[in-house]
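Following the same procedure, the fold was encoded as tokens, giving this record:
***
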Amino acid sequence: MAPPGWLTPRRRSATARSVLAGEAAAEAARKTSQQLEQEREEASAAETEAAEPEFPVVGDTRAAAFFDLDNTVMQGAAIFHFGRGLYKRKFFQRRELARFAWAQVWFRLAGVEDPEHMQEARDSALSIVKGHRVSELMSIGEEIYDEYMADRIWPGTRALAQAHLDAGQKVWLVTAAPVETATIIARRLGLTGALGTVAESVDGVYTGKLVGELLHGPAKAEAVRALAAAEGLDLARCAAYSDSHNDIPMLSLVGHPYAVNPDTKLRRHARDRDWRLRDYRTGRKAAKVGIPAAAGVGALAGGTAAALALHRRRR
């Protein structure tokens, strides 16, 4: 007996089977295409989220950039280079030069700002400029920049500052160096201006005292906060750059903190908080301990030898 018709496979013509295969393939292709498109969109979204957004944002005038000076924009410490220039012009004797030399050698070896050395440098500088006219020191400062500072600007940091300028944003130096020295450097680099330590003057003559205190550590953060309020800036959209853990208060104020040529403490702090890192020094040792290697071993050795010679001469 023949099986029921519904148990018998329906025979299709070759044409019908071809149509069925084609339709099935088309349906599978459509589903596969949708799946691939979804995967591509998800991958693209993940890449966009992971990629660093364009920064600085062109035309965002409520944003600005704040740069520390010593070892961030310039190799070494501005106050010590300034001291060398004043010594050359016989503003003080060799014993004061020895103090400047030792402090500079320490700065190069340790790669950090030591409060005790900075205090010594401040006291020396104030005693040296006391009684001199502000205009005189500004004029000399221009010459000292050309002699000792111009060749010590980090090209990488200079490029970062230029990116903000090109975006139409203001760029400020923030430093413990005298505001006159900082202003000269800012002008030479084409920056907006500078926040620096203010020395008291009466009728254009230095008194040997400070207005307030050294612009260092928390004082820098207060200066940035005050300037931002006066300029109508949104600190969450601003950037700050520094090499020193002493500037963590300033870096923490802004939405875009950068550790540039960081000392050990700042590098650790930056990594813990996913801050951006930039290191323009060369050499494995420089990356580890913060020695500005690009300054050259010869310069370091020469500075050490000069300090030792002066020390022996004093004895």
The first strand starts at residue 64 and ends at 68. The chain has twelve helices and eight strands. Residues 14-50 form the longest helix (37 residues).
